[in-house]
Design goal:
By secondary structure, the chain is of the alpha+beta class. The chain contains twelve helices and 15 strands. Helices cover 51% and strands 19% of the residues. Residues 404-530 form the GGDEF domain.
Length: 530
């Protein structure tokens, strides 16, 4: 057993070290995951509570706004332009009474007119009262032709919080003759805002306007105050709702907001971040404690089992490998770990290193040769059709990701069959080879030239629009025209080109340039079609 004591210690040290590293990595990952999940859960709670309050407000306010809309429309059967007539005034007051009896949330319903007069049940305006200068009247005028934003205020007598909605009244010529307004109690809204959460006791709801002024809040000391800390973090109006975090004094807050554009209100639900972190930290601590204890116990058990069940078999394997390797050529010396596993490694490496290195070299050379063969045209030594398709797909992908332009060109040797028939296929092959080399030397290093098949060639030009592609095509024509081919054969080509666009695909761009190439042939050959 003494023989194996060093290996035993090494196994124990390695497994323990790996276990500690694994524990750290897992602990950090789990802590991060639990923290993220905890924040996500809290945001979900905030979002659901906020939506609940927002839905309640929408449902509470919707019949009030419909009542305002109905009362001011011709559907109500009242012509408000005749508000000075006693009969009309009686109809208006009767309509007000019906609405108050129908919609229990209505606290007051009244209408003011351009002459300063006021129509309201069970209330006599004081001497000198002028409806036109009242805030509810002016708000409706400002919001014309829409219903005014909900304007909260505190009733002088009952001290209850009410919200006012108003809309302009029009005559037959669409001239403003007055304003209809409904005031509703907000007890139900305030109660909904005041509902607490058992898991997060510091959750708080309130309503503010688009300028950051708090309108409705369970805390009576806060309405009619500004809340700039949160307002400065709320995104532009394009965001109807969302999550945000901010500092409110010494407290870090997490919040969710919802806009009610019809009212000009922003419903906010906030919570102290410390209130969220406490249960998360407790969950992380208990989870990590279990992981650490379980991991250490498993590691120690594995170390014991490995030491008992691996050392003896490894020793036998070592002796056997040494017998097999005796008499072999010596390899370059290498310093192995000073234990049985190191000796086994040295013996195995003596057998395999040379063969493995040689195989790797052969495999690398073979792979390189296969890659070249699979992507190269055997006659012209330029890219083959398969390689050109890979290049084209790569450019299409780059266009879709980065919107970088590219163009594709296809050309065909005019009357190439005559060359083969007249001079033979060997001369024809030499023409193809020289033409490929001429064009390859003419195009840019970034362009890819490939043989598409027979006497057809394709050029893919990255970062190239149609104007630049036409210049490249003209250079190709000029180079071919000025080159002296075998037996003084005059070689011309017909070429089609297109710039790739969002409407194209890999297949459609090829079809398009092929069609243009054939149009060039039909138009007389030796020309470019764009």
């Amino acid at each position: 057993m003494k023989k194996f004591s060093k290996l035993h210690r090494q196994i124990f040290a390695i497994t323990t070290t790996l276990a500690l590293i694994t524990i750290v990595i897992i602990s950090v990952s789990i802590a991060s995951l639990l923290y993220t999940q905890g924040i996500d859960n809290a945001e979900s709670v905030l979002r659901n509570k906020n939506r609940s309050v927002t839905t309640l407000i929408d449902g509470y306010v919707a019949p009030l706004r419909k009542a305002v809309e109905y009362t001011g429309s011709s559907a109500s059967g009242v012509d408000h332009s005749r508000f000075r007539e006693q009969e009309t005034q009686e109809k208006i007051l009767s309509l007000f009474e019906v609405l108050q009896n129908t919609i229990p949330n209505i606290h007051y319903i009244f209408s003011g007119y351009e002459n300063g007069g006021l129509l309201i049940n069970d209330y006599t305006p004081p001497v000198g009262f002028n409806a036109v200068i009242r805030p509810w009247y002016q708000a409706a005028i400002t919001s014309h032709p829409l219903i005014s934003d909900g304007i909260p205020y505190q009733d002088i007598n009952s001290k209850k919080w009410l919200v006012s909605f108003g809309k302009t009244l029009l005559d037959a010529d669409n001239n403003i003759v007055g304003v209809i307004s409904i005031d509703a109690g907000m007890d139900a809204i305030v109660k909904a805002l005041a509902i607490r959460d058992e898991k997060y006791p510091t959750i708080y709801n309130f309503v503010m306007d688009t300028e950051g002024k708090i309108l409705i809040h369970p805390n009576e000391t806060l309405p009619d105050t500004l809340h700039q800390e949160i307002f400065s973090h709320i995104p532009e109006r394009m965001n109807a709702s969302g999550n945000l975090s901010y500092n409110d004094g010494d407290q870090k807050k997490l919040a969710h907001f919802n806009r009610i554009d019809e009212l000009g209100w922003i419903v906010v639900t906030e919570v102290d971040l410390a209130d969220i972190r406490q249960p998360i930290i407790e969950s992380i601590t208990s989870t990590l404690l279990i992981i650490v204890i379980g991991s250490l116990f498993t590691t120690w058990l594995m170390s014991f089992v490995l030491s008992r069940h691996l050392i003896l078999p490894l020793k036998k394997l070592q002796n056997r490998v040494q017998e097999i390797t005796e008499g072999k050529d010596e390899l370059d010396k290498y310093v192995f770990p000073n234990n049985e596993i190191g000796q086994i490694s040295e013996a195995i490496e003596k057998l395999t290193e040379k063969a493995l290195i040689q195989k790797n070299i052969e495999l690398k050379d073979t792979n390189a040769l296969l890659s070249t063969i699979s992507h190269t045209d055997q006659l012209t030594s330029i890219a083959n059709r398969r390689k050109m398709m890979e290049v084209l797909h790569a450019e299409v992908s780059r266009f879709q990701r980065k919107h970088r332009p590219f163009s594709a060109l296809m050309f065909d040797i005019d009357h190439f069959k005559r060359v083969n028939d007249t001079f033979g296929h060997e001369v024809g092959d030499q023409v193809l080879i020289e033409l490929a080399q001429v064009v390859k030397a003419t195009v840019r290093n970034t362009d890819t030239l490939g043989r598409w098949g027979g006497e057809e060639f394709v050029i893919v030009c990255p970062n190239t629009d149609q104007r630049m592609a036409l210049n490249i095509a003209e250079d190709v024509f000029s180079a071919i025209r000025s080159h002296t081919f075998p037996l003084q054969i005059k070689v011309t080509v017909s070429l089609g080109l297109s710039e790739f666009s969002a409407e194209h695909s890999s297949e459609s761009i090829l079809v398009e340039i092929d069609q243009k190439m054939y149009r060039a042939k039909q138009a007389g050959r030796n020309q470019i079609q764009t």
